[in-house]
Design a protein that fits this description.
about 350 residues, alpha+beta, Photosynthetic Reaction Center, subunit C, domain 2, outer membrane lipoprotein receptor (LolB), chain A, 2 domains, 13-stranded antiparallel sheet, 8 helices, 13 strands, about 25% helix, globular, disordered N terminus, binds heme C
């Protein structure tokens, strides 16, 4: 049972394997609605079907619960009815849509998290000893220039002659104890990550153009934005070439992450999606990337943290890598790196 939950937690990131495998292979039509694709939808009928996974993960994280708080289990029978919390959530969804429509001109300002903050019952009484809000750190006397930040990053990463890497890593789950072995094969901007779970190996590939994810049993559908995130991570990890991803980058302000000074650069892609890139002010290294996708119940944020950079063959890579999205978090620790080891193209 535990294994099944585990597997579900992994693939829920890429939507729900069971439900989706049947339709996978079909093109990613944005126009399919949740009402058309799922069996028992009463409120989210008109929402694009590919938002459903994100909305479920957002609701789950906002309430600080698991799927089975509203459903029969954590990994199956999501269409089943007769659950008090599922019905309560439907009423709450309607309330949230009404509030945003009537008071915020339809903008998704109020979300589940606005009230719930990771608890089932939002707190009504005021906290009489609230923690003081964190002040924004002092800004540098002279405004940093974006081009300098990018040049410092490139110099910090290094210019060694690294064409390929064979990496052994460990994926650490949020409990800090459960780990999975990972093998990472990388050649230029192409990358393949094989993660070995107790009963299945999940492979995630970026072939230089497109991303895909699969197991022995077949493909796992990726939404357009999930593919895009895999691509961006591959390009950043493979070549640290930010210019191949973003057409525009602008310094915004100085901030702090874990007590260290960082510079925030807003990075915009050709199709106008925006990321936040945080560079360590001292080392010049990229320490965080954040990307936001909007759903009917508000923003779904991807956060990637890059830490413990180490030099392998004249090029630095982060040996600790953290991924967080609503309801899903994990950390990758790199254990061993073989540079310029032969990596065959058939892997991609
Ligand atoms: C706070 C309650 C709540 C939580 C937590 C929740 N769901 Fe849901 N889920 C719903 C509601 C409500 C619906 C039906 C939406 C509607 O009627 O428009 C639904 C529908 C679904 C469906 C569509 C089923 C069908 O075929 O009709 C799937 C799949 C699903 N949820 C998966 C999940 C997963 C996976 C999780 C955990 C990551 C999760 N849900 C967590 C409330 C919840
Ligand atoms: C405006 C504030 C607010 C927002 C926004 C909000 N909720 Fe609630 N929610 C509440 C309050 C207050 C309660 C507790 C009501 C009670 O105790 O009877 C509650 C209760 C619930 C419950 C029932 C808990 C229980 O134990 O009975 C569920 C499930 C729930 N909310 C889901 C959601 C979801 C999902 C969203 C987003 C779609 C959401 N809520 C958005 C205020 C809010």
């Amino acid at each position: 049972m535990k294994k099944a939950i585990k597997l579900f937690a992994i693939i829920s990131f890429a939507a729900f394997a069971g439900t989706f495998l049947a339709t996978s292979g079909s093109t990613q039509t944005q126009t399919v609605t949740a009402g058309q694709k799922f069996k028992s939808i009463k409120v989210l009928n008109d929402m694009p079907a590919d938002q459903l996974g994100k909305v479920m993960n957002l609701m789950t994280a906002s309430l600080g619960v698991q799927c089975k708080y509203c459903h029969a289990s954590n990994d199956a029978d999501f269409e089943k009815e007769g659950f008090e919390h599922k019905d309560a959530a439907r009423a709450m969804l309607k309330m949230v849509f009404d509030i945003n429509k009537n008071y915020f001109e339809g903008r998704p300002e109020v979300t589940c998290n606005t009230c719930h903050r990771a608890q089932g019952h939002p707190q009504a009484a005021l906290n009489l000893y609230p923690a003081p809000p964190e002040p924004r750190p002092a800004q540098p006397a002279t405004k940093p220039v974006t081009a300098d930040i990018l040049a410092k990053f490139a110099a910090a990463i290094g210019t060694g002659d690294v064409k390929s890497r064979k990496i052994t890593a460990q994926r650490i789950e949020p409990d800090g104890k459960t780990t999975e072995a990972e093998e990472i094969l990388q050649s230029g901007s192409k990358i393949r990550v094989n993660t070995t779970y107790p009963t299945v190996v999940v492979s995630e590939v970026f072939d230089g153009t497109k991303a895909r994810k699969f197991t022995d049993a077949g493909p796992i559908d990726l939404t357009a934005d999930e593919s895009e995130q895999i691509k961006r991570e591959a390009l950043i990890f493979g070549s640290a070439d930010l210019k191949s991803i973003y057409t525009k980058m602008d310094y915004r302000f100085a901030d702090k992450i874990d007590g260290r000074d960082v510079y925030l650069v807003q990075a915009t892609t050709a199709d106008n999606s925006r990321d936040r890139l945080y560079f360590d002010a001292q080392t010049g290294l990229l320490v965080r990337r954040m990307s936001t996708v909007f759903t009917v119940v508000g923003p779904f944020v991807y956060q990637f943290d890059y830490a413990d950079y180490k030099d392998f063959g004249g090029v630095k890579i982060p040996t600790t890598y953290k991924v967080a999205v609503p309801n899903i978090r994990w950390t990758r620790k790199i254990v061993d790196v073989k540079i310029n080891a032969p990596v065959e193209d058939k892997n991609f």
